[in-house]
Automatic annotation (TrEMBL):
Belongs to the TonB-dependent receptor family. It is a multi-pass membrane protein. This is TonB-dependent receptor. It comes from Pseudomonas helleri. The keyword Membrane applies.
Length: 844
């Protein structure tokens, strides 16, 4: 659609068109004002949203960052992960260009927790604790906060922070409120258009003798996004023994349809001034339909750039449907009885991931090798290969892997808290204590089939030739790709076979597990206000009982595995806040936290074959962290603040992948890949934030809003491993995985009675993604720095009707992973920008 126009020209054209539209609108408004016909339209703007969030941050006993629902609406964020990335100290991991997992202060997503309305959200994915927040549409959220210092009455299960999602309440608005939005998006990479609709409604009613004491709120959201990406990756297949030579690489074309829907229904009841009850419900569904075509080129010997030699090739297809669901139900209340306050909450959350039988991999091998083949461009490898590589007649079906998997993660909890206000020598104080019982279970069930040896089943070469399965040349942004593969034709081929004869018992049984994690906790804490000081001191206890059941295979013989453990933690904490001036306060905190390893790391399954082994480690110790925070906040009128926070974390028992061959029970093995606890790791940093509305300047500059935040952090840890070549145990220093040294946001906005525009940029520096062997630093994978630039514009046609324009990823930022050095590709993926227009009707 935009051929012949460069990316820079397109971005420039977009901003020029918007600037002219804005200028035209201001000119029209000025002319109407002269004629005495200007209509004054009040809109909920950026400054109001920022102000609400800052007030919540200012009054909190913990160090936290907040964004409100109307703040989410000011940005082109499709889900909760993208909305929360705007906050200080936050970065996100993306999947196919969309925000997915949240990192806090440089700590990876699995080291943080997510709660909805105060109850833990379990993870839909089989191996992770991290919650993929792209499952949650941003329209279902009233506010988002990231709590970075935990008070003793909070779960101590996050090292970086807890992402708390609050859904809509009828008491967030006065009287009847409703809103509806319809939107259409366009992806430049695939030229696909995607629809989106959402809405919310709330109202209050009078029950009994009360007035507006019962509230009902509901929200719905649905969108379907059709898009894709283009990828080239080596997966680390570099040979660095003599320069940089490549063994193989793969080109991929993704075609994705992503449907996201959700709803919430919430009730609030306040029968009197001393009592409140609530029921919060939330359901979200995320369906991903993906078709991935790929081709791979494997050289007979590792080849340097431009060098030619013999190569073989494969063409592959993966086709899957994956549905993730999150549902959360929270019932709670609070009762004031003079100096006493009793509060409690019961919560149930369930996450699941269901992948029905799909093509995990259909592989076509080249009938013969391709001579005089090579590659060029180490960052985005491109093939040097003959025309036969692009002819489907030169490939024949080798095997088809089919897989289905279902994971369920459930968490039930009951919490009870009792607080009493009292006075000590004229100083207001409160003593609070309570307990919580949590029961969590995670199950994974995998079924796999492998179809191969087709010629022995009576199929001819003509029936297996890619010509019969080809669906024509695919569009590939990185160069020429060749023929795509039809999933339907492959399913027709294997559909007539008895699948029981192709059952993959090892692939089915070894990945199955059931884990139970029961946590009993109790705490006590005391809060006292002394002049300009507020102190909170307390102690939390958490006792954990863990049970993991699964199956392993040792030289063809299956073995049942059952590991039971229990451990206990006493976690003291101390918070202090000092009111330095009316609008300036200093905060300090010493807290302790404990985070359990991921379910993939704890998995009980194993595969042992001769002198090679791969297994999880159910006996891993939990990660423990002592955290120190010190900072200052200054508030400057509406939407204005400047803050600085120092943080330091001393982490014990961090987990890393390791090869245990040559040590202990694995002394006679050449490979024994598992997970191990490291010793101590350190993380320290500085977090800066600033926002300001320039409302004291003359018009139109009084509508300008500027926001900026950045986090500088450093980490150091060390890992150990056995080196078979030298026969010694080696040690090397590393950064913590997923920790970026610099994360930052910059926002420039402008608003008046009708128009609101905002340009925002998000930056994340490079970080270590995955470790190779202790003696193989060159094959560590790193994610390169990324900068995303987004634009939003909102214009109020009337008091209740607003039109919007959003643009995401204006810089067409790719995802680039490299092996050891940024010159050597591990993965390069491009998504393209996305544009959308919408219309919102709101009654308030």
């Amino acid at each position: 659609m935009y051929k012949g126009r460069s990316k820079t020209q397109w971005v420039g054209f977009t901003f020029s068109a918007l600037a002219m539209a804005i200028a035209s609108e201001r000119l029209s408004a000025a002319e109407a004002s002269v004629a005495g016909a200007t209509e004054h339209v009040e809109v909920v703007g950026q400054a109001v949203s920022l102000d609400k969030a800052l007030k919540q941050q200012r009054n909190s006993d913990a160090i936290q960052s907040v964004v409100h629902a109307d703040g989410v609406a000011q940005l082109p964020d499709a889900n909760v992960a993208e909305a929360v990335q705007r906050l200080p100290g936050i970065s996100i991991e993306r999947d196919q260009g969309e925000g997915r997992f949240v990192s806090v202060r440089g700590l990876g997503p699995d080291l943080n927790s997510v709660t909805i309305n105060g109850t833990l959200v379990p993870s839909p994915e089989s191996k992770r604790r991290a919650v993929a927040l792209d499952v949650l549409p941003s329209e279902l959220v009233q506010s988002l906060s990231v709590i970075k210092t935990l008070t003793p009455d909070m779960d101590a299960n996050s090292l970086g922070g807890t992402v708390d999602v609050e859904s809509l309440s009828a008491f967030d608005h006065d009287g009847l409120f409703y809103t509806a939005t319809t939107q259409a998006g366009y992806n430049k990479n695939t030229h696909q258009t995607s629809p989106k609709v959402s809405g919310a409604i709330s109202d209050r009613f009078s029950l009994g003798d009360g007035i507006d004491n019962f509230g009902v709120a509901a929200a719905l959201s649905w969108n379907k996004r059709d898009f894709g990406s283009d990828n080239v990756e080596t997966a680390g297949a570099w040979d660095f023994t003599d320069g940089a030579k490549l063994n193989s690489f793969e080109q991929r074309v993704y075609d994705i349809s992503r449907e996201r829907s959700g709803g919430g229904l919430n009730f609030d009841y306040k029968p009197d001034d001393d009592t409140k009850l609530y029921l919060r419900t939330l359901y979200s569904r995320f369906k991903d339909s993906e078709i991935r075509n790929s081709d791979s080129i494997e050289y007979a010997n590792p080849q340097a750039e431009g060098e030619l030699g013999k190569a073989k090739a494969k063409r592959k297809l993966k086709q899957r449907d994956e549905t993730q669901e999150i549902q959360s139900y929270v019932f709670g209340g609070e009762r004031s009885m003079g100096l006493w306050t009793l509060s409690g909450q019961a919560g149930y959350s369930e996450s699941s991931e269901d992948s029905p039988a799909g093509i995990a991999g259909a592989t076509f091998k080249s009938i013969s090798s391709f001579p005089d083949s090579g590659w060029y461009d180490s960052e985005k490898p491109r093939p040097i290969i003959g025309a036969g590589f692009y002819d489907p007649a030169n490939f024949i079906l080798d095997k088809v892997d089919v897989k289905k998997e279902i994971t369920k993660d459930k968490e039930k909890n009951i919490r009870l808290d009792l607080a009493r206000d009292y006075d000590v020598d004229g100083y207001a104080s409160q003593f609070k204590f309570g307990g919580k019982v949590s029961r969590r279970s995670k199950d994974n069930d995998t079924e796999a089939w492998t179809y191969k040896n087709f010629s022995k089943l009576g199929f001819s070469d003509d029936q297996l030739n890619l010509d019969r399965f080809s669906k024509g040349e695919l569009d590939y942004a990185l160069g020429r790709y060749g023929p795509g593969i039809s999933a339907g034709t492959i399913k027709d081929l294997i559909g007539g076979l008895n699948r029981d004869k192709f059952y993959n018992e090892q692939g089915s049984r070894v990945n199955d597990f059931t884990m139970h994690e029961d946590i009993n906790s109790a705490y006590l804490m005391n809060t006292v206000d002394i002049d300009n000081w507020r102190f909170i001191a307390g102690l939390r206890y958490e006792g954990t009982e863990f049970d993991a059941k699964g199956t392993g295979i040792r030289n063809g013989v299956y073995e049942a595995q059952d590991t039971k453990r229990d451990y206990h933690h006493w976690l003291p904490g101390l918070h202090a806040r000092y009111q330095l001036a009316k609008n300036t306060q200093v905060r300090a905190a010493w807290t302790n936290a404990v985070v359990r390893p991921t379910f993939g790391q704890l998995a009980p399954g194993f595969v042992i074959e001769d002198d090679k082994a791969e297994f999880g480690n159910p006996n891993l110790k939990p990660l423990e962290s002592s955290n120190f925070d010190l900072g200052i906040e200054h508030f400057m009128g509406q939407a204005g603040t400047v803050s600085a926070f120092l943080f330091y974390k001393d982490i014990k028992n961090f987990v890393y992948n390791n090869d245990l061959a040559g040590t202990g029970a694995w002394r006679d093995f050449t490979e024994a890949h598992s997970y191990a606890n490291g010793d101590n790791a350190k993380l320290y940093g500085l977090e800066l934030a600033y926002s300001q509305k320039f409302d004291w300047l003359p018009a139109p500059w009084n509508g300008v809003i500027v926001g900026a935040n950045t986090t500088f952090s450093r980490s150091n840890a060390s890992i150990k491993g056995y080196d078979a070549a030298s026969g010694q145990t080696l040690k090397r220093d590393i950064d913590l995985p997923s920790q970026s040294n610099t994360v930052g946001n910059l926002m420039l906005g402008c608003e008046d009675d009708k128009l609101s525009v905002r340009l925002s940029a998000n930056y994340k520096s490079a970080y270590l993604y995955e470790l190779a062997g202790v003696n193989d630093k060159a094959h560590d994978t790193h994610v390169a720095a990324q900068t995303f630039v987004d634009f939003s514009a909102r214009y109020s046609l009337t008091k209740n009707l607003q039109v919007s324009f959003d643009a995401q990823n204006l810089t067409d930022q790719p995802y680039f992973v490299y092996s050891g050095n940024s010159r050597y590709n591990n993965q390069h993926e491009e998504y393209g920008p996305t544009y959308s227009v919408g219309l919102t009707f709101t009654h308030f």
